[in-house]
Design a protein that fits this description.
By secondary structure, the chain is α+β, with helices and mostly antiparallel strands. The chain has helices at residues 10-22, 40-45, 70-81, 91-117, 124-147, 157-166, 180-190, 193-200; strands at residues 2-6, 26-30, 53-56, 65-68.
């Protein structure tokens, strides 16, 4: 059985999309971001104290496999089920590059922009710095999605990782009209039944 420890943040939805695309059985383990992610029990699974974390209890006589970091979880599941990550080069490397682009760029920069944008105390320099970087990253996606239908070429874990962060640019104060290729991609990914289901999951 697969156990996914998560909350429904963009990072939490990434492996949810993957599990729904795979159509495998899994159990959700909500981790509320009120300090529960720093509890001793959870830190034994994820020493970084963040979500998500995957526990794969493959068999009763086997040690469970524990994977933290959303990108690592996507790669683990892709390799376990041999789906959504090409085996052949150069498409495998291309897919992983765009996955890392989300992990190292989009996630951290969008997260920082949201943090400073919605603070009670305004810090104009930080807001403008991360706004400009967020817009630049949308521009990088715009160029890539003018070259290829999906980030890795074919639909893959790179798209699953990026979609929950990119699908609502209004949250960042950006206009999607200036990114027509990203708009086309958002519609294509969002219309997938597994993505729609994963994005609609609500935890209490």
């Amino acid at each position: 059985m697969l156990e996914l420890y998560l909350w429904t943040t963009p990072n939490g939805r990434k492996p949810l999309i993957m599990l729904e695309e795979l159509g495998v059985d899994y159990e959700m383990k909500p981790i509320r971001l009120n300090g529960e992610q720093k509890s001793p029990a959870y830190l034994k699974l994820n020493p970084n104290g963040r979500i998500p974390t995957l526990v794969d209890r493959a068999g009763a006589d086997e040690e469970p496999v524990v994977v933290f970091e959303s990108g690592a979880i996507l790669i683990y599941l892709a390799e376990k089920y041999e789906q959504f990550l090409p085996k052949n080069e150069p498409t495998r490397s291309t897919t992983i590059q765009w996955l890392m682009f989300q992990m190292g760029g989009i996630g951290p920069m969008f997260g920082q922009y949201g943090h400073f944008r919605f603070r009670d105390e305004e810090i104009p320099y930080a807001i403008e710095r991360y706004r400009a970087e967020s817009e630049r990253l949308y521009g990088v996606l715009e160029i890539r999605l003018g070259e290829a239908e999906y980030l890795g070429g074919a639909y893959s874990i790179a798209d699953m990782a990026t979609y929950p962060w990119v699908n609502n640019p209004a949250m960042l104060g950006l206009e999607l009209a200036q990114f027509p290729n990203v708009k086309r991609w958002i519609e294509a990914v969002g219309n997938r039944p597994a993505v729609d289901k994963a994005m609609g999951i609500s935890l209490t």
